[in-house]
Amino acid sequence: MGSCKASGKYGFGLVVLLAGLILLGGNLGLIPEHIYNVIMRWPMILVAISMISFINRDWLAGLILLTIGSYFMMPHLVDDFSMREIWKYWPVLLIIIGVAILRGKRKKNAPLHYHSNSDDYIEEITIFGGNVTRIDSKNLKGGEITSIFGGSEINLIDAELSDNGATIEMTAIFGGVKLIVPRQWNIKIEVTSILGGFTDKRVPGGEGVDASKTLVIKGETIFGGGELVSY
Question: Which residues fall in a coiled-coil region (predicted)?
């Protein structure tokens, strides 16, 4: 398990490093503008995450994400490649979904992974699986949650925000993220959805809300979803 976490951090670090180099090259004019504009499109997020999957030796997830990312990048890479032509290949999506369903059935009886975490910074990556994590940090500063073809449930009922609040970056791609928060927390949602959604299902009413500390939820849902609930 430790080696898996290490490889996950290595893969994420490598992607961040490459992203920094690309952004720097674009700002300094070292990368041609037409290439830079292609790289900065949203399908490259899928390609980047596929790299992490390959490093983690999750070949199926990496292949699926790379295929989907490449599919949506084709109109920007080939000049005479029209959307009419790209739809000739739409059955590829069915093939990918079928593979995902078969893989899911194979793991149907596998239990969810339950664990607790006292760290002040959340690092949660779920690919083709499910995690339920209970956070009991008394100085929560933020974190990163990634769910790809899987589901993550983060329970923050026993946690407390730091004096400066906290910021959580979440990414859901063909997956879902569920955040359970205390009712008195002040929440600010800044999530961008692309053919997905993020739903605030908290009970209406702001009685007892502590406005001095704020949990900011940022990120993207791409063909995926997220929800915020309180008990």
Answer: none
Contacts of 184 (CB under 8 A, 6+ apart): 208, 209, 210
DSSP letter at 89 equals G
The Cα–Cα gap between 178 and 45 comes to 21
CA 10 – CA 56 distance, rounded (Å):
9
Which pair of structure tokens corresponds to residue 50?
A: 């596929």
Residue 48: C-alpha distances to residues 78, 104, 206, 210 (Å) = 20, 23, 40, 38
pLDDT in tens, 154-212: 999 989 999 899 999 988 887 889 999 998 889 999 988 877 788 888 877 656 777 88
| pTM assigned to the model | 0.53
